[in-house]
Specification:
Blueprint: H1 2-19, H2 29-42, H3 45-54, H4 63-82, H5 86-106, H6 111-127, H7 132-144, H8 154-166, H9 175-191, H10 199-214, H11 218-231
Helix pairs in contact: 1-2, 2-3, 2-4, 2-10, 3-4, 4-5, 4-6, 5-6, 6-7, 6-8, 8-9, 9-10, 10-11
Length: 239
């Protein structure tokens, strides 16, 4: 019953926000979140790029909306790299790096901004693997600046997990430890009553499925895939 109510609320939110967005004008953070969640569910990656092209970070002023916009561009970089569009990805990295630098001047200890800023170096490694030692050191230095309770922020946990998951074991990578961090981030996202339209929380579940597959946790793969498919029946691309 609870899951059905969750899906019904999500559909209503998405429908209302999309109807209010027929003209494709500037979106606020909530509208953008719901639009991108729908795109993520349906696998409509082309719309993701179009939405960011038609909307400007300069037109939103609250830190919450700014975070939605920067996280959306962060996701777009991953989409472009997956599509082998390296030149476009490199340009988006430059844009986001400049945006994050400006936002960090105003919010110098914000954990989500700091983890995104560090995480850009993971994308740079994808583009220039031969510079992995340089970008890896910059990544570690930036993540080391995140202190105390901020380390338990779900976005920081996710980023820390990404680093451990994709780093070779010889350099300290550990898929099992990465998955533990992702699981804690997932628990926090699930407990967030305001997270109905958080595409990144759904992306985390997809990453957990991948992680479980790689370490042979077949039962956990089945349980989580079933959960995701029941909650998001239009997510037909999830295999």
């Amino acid at each position: 019953m609870e899951r059905s109510e969750h899906r019904f609320r999500l559909r209503i939110i998405v429908l209302l926000l999309l109807l209010s967005k027929v003209s494709f004008g500037q979106m606020n953070g909530e509208q953008l979140s719901c639009r991108l969640l729908e795109d993520y569910i349906t696998g409509n990656k082309a719309d993701w790029e179009a939405v960011l092209r038609d909307n400007s970070l300069d037109s939103v002023h609250s830190i919450n909306d700014q975070l939605v916009y920067t996280r959306a561009r962060y996701g777009l970089i991953g989409i472009l790299l997956e599509a082998k569009r390296k030149t476009d990805a490199s340009r988006q990295i430059e844009i986001l790096e400049q945006q994050l630098q400006a936002l960090l001047k105003q919010n110098p200890t914000h954990p989500e901004l700091m983890s995104m800023y560090a995480g850009l170096n993971g994308f740079k490694i994808s583009l220039q693997p031969f510079k992995a030692p340089i970008y890896g050191r910059i990544y570690n230095n930036r993540m080391d600046e995140i202190k105390g309770a901020n380390l338990n922020n779900p976005y920081v946990l996710f980023e820390r997990g990404n680093s451990l998951f994709y780093r070779p074991a010889i350099f300290g990578g550990d898929k099992k430890e990465a998955i533990k961090l992702w699981e804690e981030a997932d628990r926090q996202f699930e407990a967030d009553s305001k997270g109905n339209c958080n595409w990144y929380a759904l992306h985390l579940k997809v990453m957990l499925i991948k992680g479980y597959e790689e370490i042979g946790e077949t039962r956990k793969v089945l349980i989580l895939k079933t959960t995701v498919r029941v909650r998001y029946p239009k997510m037909e691309w999830l295999r």
